[in-house]
Amino acid sequence: MRGPTIVAPTVVALLCAFAAQGAIVSVTKDIAVDTKWTSANEYNLDTQVKVLAGATLTIQPGTMIRAAKNDSSGRAPALIITQGAKIDAQGTASQPITFTTQETITSTNNRGLWGGIVVCGFGILSGPTGTTSFVEGLDNIVYGGTNNTDNSGVMRYVRIWHGGADVGVSTSLQGSGNEINGLTLAGVRSGTTLEYIEVAFNLDDGFELFGGAVNGRYLSSIYNKDDAFDTDQGYQGKLQFIFALLDEDGNHAAEMDGVLDATGAIVQPRSYPQVYGATFAKVLNQDSYYYKLSRFPPH
């Protein structure tokens, strides 16, 4: 992590974090029981993997996860925490947890090289009580409900790099609108902890929050193609100390939306995101900064 991002470790720490790992473990099946990924191994995310209800995926500090660009069906691999499941990914400043691609990174090939991370909860969405929805582009991944206070786990000192590929069934669908966000938080509730998370070089949004009331602190969104931060569908949470760095390709630093009905009236509960402390910047000469970021990339 580079520049004025709060998550950034030192160069020495980066070298330690990217030291040679042990066994390479291919992950190709859904996770139905409590599972731990350790820093002694490197994990290849080779398909879309769901953590199922009742299971917790624990990831140790310093663990490296590399995802393929597409699986055998043409879908971009992604890690999906379904309703009722949890993630416990607690890195440290010197040993962050890193999600990145298996592809070779260049100055022109650095976005859309895998899917991303999706967390689904039972949080409240705009619409009638108990409204639910499906995550766009994924098969039957439901989010929403009536509980804004339960939790989907902890993510702390996590980096999510080079994602945003289309999660549809075919690579020919790239650009169809099913590009996935770096971190999608769908109906996630306030009991969930999100701190010191960085999304960089994503083809779609960096962070997108659909409904729910999860809070986040120390979130960095760097050189993502669409919006740095996007909220919608009645999101009610608080964001503190957020940082967005856009280049010439980027869209908005923040897009805060709500839902309207057919008459143009606001659908309740309306979106009410609260932001406390934000720094937004745009870099026009991106090439020199790409070079700086590539000195010690998580690849």
User: How much strand content do the residues show?
Assistant: 25-35%
Helix content: under 10%
Number of strands: 21
Number of helices: 2
Structural shape: globular
Radius of gyration: 18 Å
Q: SSE layout and pairings?
A:
Blueprint: H1 11-17, E1 24-27, E2 35-37, E3 42-45, E4 49-51, E5 56-59, E6 64-67, E7 79-81, E8 86-90, E9 97-101, E10 117-120, E11 132-134, E12 142-144, E13 153-161, E14 183-186, E15 193-200, E16 207-210, E17 216-222, E18 229-232, E19 238-246, E20 254-256, E21 274-282, H2 286-294
Parallel strand pairs: 1-3, 2-5, 3-6, 4-7, 5-8, 6-9, 7-10, 8-13, 9-13, 10-14, 13-15, 14-16, 15-17, 16-18, 17-19, 18-20, 19-21
Antiparallel strand pairs: 11-12
